[in-house]
UniProtKB/TrEMBL annotation:
InterPro entries: 6-hairpin_glycosidase_sf (IPR008928), GH-type_carb-bd (IPR014718), GH92_a_mannosidase_put (IPR005887), GH92_N (IPR041371), Glyco_hydro_92 (IPR012939), PNGase (IPR050883). It comes from Stakelama pacifica. Residues 31-284 form the Glycosyl hydrolase family 92 N-terminal domain. It holds the Pfam family Glyco_hydro_92N. This is Putative alpha-1,2-mannosidase. One of its GO terms (molecular function) is carbohydrate binding. Residues 1-19 form the signal peptide. The keyword Signal applies.
Length: 776
């Protein structure tokens, strides 16, 4: 209670908070980082700053078998009974695991354990049991008591620095174990090389190179301690020989103790200490000198770093003010928090960074960022950042993508990148819509001509994902390339965004070329069956065909025909005409949501979660589908489906995310949807109206304007829109423009218990479609 009162005093509630409203709890206090740490959310609870390079978090099992690592993609899993240690790098909600770098584990007493041990056998290693009752998690802060040793562990982080604070039991010697052998998604031979160096001033530096999801990834660190070292040992477990080097600072020695190898550990001994031990750790992708410079650039004690990061989080979260029932408010603010974790900073304080060519480059006038899960995040995560983050953040993102393209050995934009390295995971060239959407919304601070050139280069790189055949045939042939149906429609959407940006820049020849390609989605659509299907090089559709089949390496990417037959965000009107008009489209949408899954087994497909019939909210290809009723003139059906999704897919508990958060995409969907609108087609400058899930909200825009969402009559019973006004004038259409939001004003909803089947049904009220009339 005292902690809550203190935070409330430090961070006042939103201006519109009413007496007795839960909005008196600040945005910072409303966040629960434990949401998504159970089930298949794959989030971590540890400490990080907004977009921070360091994600300092507990790992409950960093030595899982490969077949079991999917559930431990974030390092921490809520139902695990032990903590193995605290490492400095993690993904938030990824569908693949890696990272978990530089694991630190405190130990107390006369014996120092050098191996993690078996979680089923207490005392068999350095891992420790813990209780969730002893955990505290908040943005930028995490704490837990290690039950086996009695050590209280606290974590906080700045942008490039993580800070540990360990309180040891009185009278017991304090030790730290630094284990460079561990990694998330570990396997023999993953650690290619590593090093440990003890400097004369007591600074510990080191590095390691790994081959994992990102090949040849290099990471460097620098570590300093608030207490003097009594002794230390560097150990290469391949040799099982202890290295006796420099025995601590303050003895007049300038010796640099060093150990190189593939299985290194450092044992650091502090003796009996008075008060907590603080450990400051900085990372760099460049070199150890860069890590030391990053450490110097973010000076401060644990409490100082924590306070600065807490202030940064309050500012970032304050971009959106929300008044809603407490569970919903927690869901939304936690979702907002998760959207602000990536793309993470990757350049050092001096602007140097390691790029996709494994060379060191200098970022000028921008901060280089990495961790781009673009197949997921182009849909809502990046569009949300264009509204709630300063233009500098968004221009940094674009400049980072362009720098990656410049130094890419293939000369193309990132696909799925982290630590500056390309993984080639997922399909499409979805950096393209991120850039186009930012440009269309007026975000500048980057070279638009260079950006367009990079987009075209990515869209015409024939060796990538069947693009050569796509350009030649007008579709990706399944006998030449797996997941061909999905690739065809995703390429076509990306091409449309190139056309949009080129047209806005006056590059009509490029625009004409890519507008034609934007229509290639039709070439894989079987008008006889009404499904998107994979075609062979000879033009025939592949048989046999089952629209409900999900098999990796087949016609579709992490989905089936039910999801991908709707992926034409740039031309839903054109799709609906092929399907036979509004009524048949609505019937097919209903059939998707109402599909009987009895006897259907998708257990072989890892990312298929959160099913409502054949609608799969736990994976991204479905995310826009509930909004498509608006395009068919039945917005009340969108309102019904959104209530169904929100009620079943999000809750304020560790298992409260139906599927992987995927670097903020699942969360961005909820933030937009709760506010009442969603970017179905990034690049169109439109948001499709769904229905609100808040009583009152406001977006504090980077330009200083304020866009408010006010709602009358919202309740579980009143799930339908009765009427909508924009700045006091009736709004008959089912979409908003980006300019209308950025200009500030008020969007007002009146909710009711029965559908309003007149509002938003006219042809002129429907959102943008490429083959229809452009709504402005």
């Amino acid at each position: 209670m005292h902690k809550l009162l203190l935070l409330a005093a430090l961070f006042p509630a939103p201006a519109f908070a009413q007496a007795g409203s839960n909005a008196t709890v600040t945005p910072y206090q409303a966040v629960d980082p434990m949401i998504g740490t159970g089930g298949e959310g794959h989030t971590y609870p540890g400490a990080t700053a907004p977009f921070g390079m360091v994600q300092l978090s507990p790992d409950t099992d960093a030595s899982c078998e490969i077949r079991e690592c999917y559930g431990h993609a974030a390092g921490y899993r809520y139902d695990d009974p032990t903590i193995q240690g605290f490492s400095h790098t993690h993904f938030s909600g990824a569908g693949h695991s890696d990272l978990g770098d530089v694991l630190v584990m405190p130990q107390a007493g006369d014996t120092v354990q050098m191996d993690a041990g078996d979680p089923k056998q207490p005392g068999s290693g350095y891992r420790s049991r813990f209780s969730h009752d002893s955990e505290t998690a908040a943005p930028g802060y995490y704490a837990v008591t290690l039950a086996d040793s009695g050590i209280r562990a606290e974590l906080t982080a700045g942008t490039r620095v993580g800070v540990h604070r360990y309180t040891f039991p009185a009278g017991k010697a304090a030790h730290l174990l630094i284990d460079l052998r561990t990694s998330l998604y570990n396997y023999p031979g993953k650690i290619l090389w590593s090093g440990l160096h003890m400097h004369a001033d007591g600074t510990l530096t080191g590095f390691r190179e790994t081959r994992g999801w990102a090949p040849g990834r290099k990471l460097y660190f620098a570590m300093r301690f608030s207490k003097p070292l009594k002794s230390h040992a560097f150990v290469d477990r391949d040799e099982n020989v202890k290295y006796r080097g420099f025995q601590g600072p303050g003895r007049g020695s300038d010796e640099l103790a060093e150990k190189l190898g593939r299985a290194l550990e450092a044992r650091l001994d502090f003796g009996k200490v008075d008060g907590p031990l603080e450990v400051r750790v900085a990372l760099s992708g460049v070199d150890e000198a860069g890590a030391i410079a990053n450490l110097d650039a973010e000076a401060g004690s644990f409490d100082q770093v924590r306070a600065a990061t807490q202030t940064a989080w309050q500012k970032a979260l304050g971009a959106v003010e929300i008044d809603a029932p407490a569970p919903m408010r927690t869901n939304i603010y936690t979702a907002l928090y998760h959207t602000l974790l990536a793309p993470s900073v990757w350049s050092d304080a001096d602007g140097r960074y390691r790029g996709p060519d494994d060379q060191v480059h200098q970022a000028k006038d921008f901060t280089f960022r990495s961790t781009f899960s673009l197949w997921d995040t182009f849909r809502a995560e990046h569009p949300l950042l264009t509204l709630i983050q300063p233009e500098k953040t968004n221009s940094d993102i674009v400049n980072s993508l362009l720098a990656s393209q410049k130094y890419s050995p293939q000369g193309i934009l990132p696909v799925w990148q982290f630590a500056g390295r390309e993984t080639w995971t997922m399909i499409g060239y979805h950096a393209v819509p991120v850039i186009a959407d930012a440009y269309m919304k007026g975000i500048r601070g980057f070279d638009a001509d260079a950006a367009l050139d990079a987009m075209v280069a990515s869209a015409t790189y024939a060796p990538y994902g069947g693009l050569g055949d796509y350009m030649r045939l007008g579709y990706v042939p399944i006998d030449k390339e797996p997941e061909a149906a999905s690739k065809t429609v995703e390429y076509a959407y990306d091409d449309w965004t190139i056309a949009r940006m080129a047209r806005a820049m006056g590059k009509d020849a490029i625009a004409d070329r890519f507008e034609k390609r934007a229509g290639y989605w039709r070439n894989s659509f079987d008008t006889k069956s009404g499904w998107l299907r994979a075609r062979k090089s000879d033009g025939d559709f592949r048989t046999p065909f089952d629209p409900a089949a999900i098999n990796y390496g087949s016609d579709y990417t992490e989905g089936n025909a039910w999801q991908y037959s709707w992926f034409v965000p740039q031309d839903q009107a054109g799709l609906f005409r092929i399907l036979g008009g509004d009524a048949k489209t609505i019937a097919k949408l209903d059939a998707m949501f109402d599909y009987d899954l009895s006897g259907v087994d998708y257990s072989h497909a890892e990312d298929i979660a959160g099913l409502i019939g054949q609608y799969i909210h736990g994976n991204e290809p479905s995310h826009h589908v509930a909004y498509l009723y608006d395009y068919a003139g039945a917005p009340w059906r969108t309102q019904e489906r959104l209530a169904q999704i929100v009620d079943s897919q999000y809750k304020p508990t560790p298992d409260g995310l139906a599927g992987n958060d995927d670097l903020g995409q699942m969360s961005a969907w909820l933030v937009f949807t709760a506010l009442g609108f969603y970017p179905v087609a990034p690049g169109s400058n439109q948001y499709v109206i769904g229905r609100p899930f808040v009583d009152h909200a406001a977006i504090n825009l980077p330009n200083g304007k304020r866009f408010e969402i006010t709602v009358d009559g919202l309740s579980p019973a009143n799930r339908y829109i009765g009427s909508v006004t924009l700045n006091g004038k009736p709004l008959a259409r089912t979409w908003l423009t980006d300019a209308e939001i950025r200009s500030g004003g008020e969007l007002h909803f009146t909710m009711q218990a029965t559908p309003n089947k007149q509002w938003g049904t006219a042809k002129s009220a429907r959102p943008f479609s490429m083959s229809g009339t452009l709504q402005r």
